[in-house]
Amino acid sequence: MDLKGRVALVAGGTGLLGTAIARALAGAGADIAITYLERKDAARETCAVVEGLGRRAFSVALDQTKAEAIAPAVEAVKAHFGKIDILVNNAAWNISIPFPDLEALDAAVWDRLFATNLRGPYLLARAAAPHLKASGSGRIVNIASVAGLNPGGSSIAYATSKAGLIHLTRCLAVALAPQVSVNCVAPGLMEGTRMTSRLRPEQADGARQRAILKRAASVEDVADQVVAFCKSDSVTGQTLNIDAGVFFH
Fold first, then answer.
1. DSSP run (H or E) holding 67
2. What is the model's pLDDT at position 249?
3. Annotated catalytic residue within 87, 158, 180, 226
4. pTM (2 decimals)?
């Protein structure tokens, strides 16, 4: 699919990865809407990057743990651009809790992680689905984590929420076919992101050491894969991990 003139909604469009995804999609010709939680200045910066590439930009505040806020945010994007062709579910939250510390992983933390990382993406996909279907070639790309494929990451709840997002990708691929394709990128450790900053130092060091390339995953590689999934006309229900070659051992 040619992305020129398409409209992409990037949920979680601030921060290092969100901006990289917005930049990559804009570089491929798409106009960009982003959601942000509290960082309005960061949202302006991302929009400025998009506009610097000659594409239109729009931002909307959204706390995707609040189910009632999701549909109005999606409709605001539709009203601004007239359509939505692409949804990228990048917004997420994590907190560092060692796996053995079950007492620290209480119901409130569990619920916040799942509301942000799994329920939010589902409700965004649900709200965007009519617009994506109307596009005739809609795309959803979910951003999961290598922690959803192996027992690791910042906490048990984070890992299982991302595992759920990977399976949600498969289920939505079935539910929205043939008008919409749904795929997933599962990054490993990415330097400079807020998610990585919340890891314990030994967790981040362990991820670097496990990578056979002895480096972190490239934010640009993740963003480029989002674009590749959006351009593809015959790939759906797939998850690609980008982690510099992490094999758990």
1. helix 67-81
2. 44
3. 158
4. 0.93
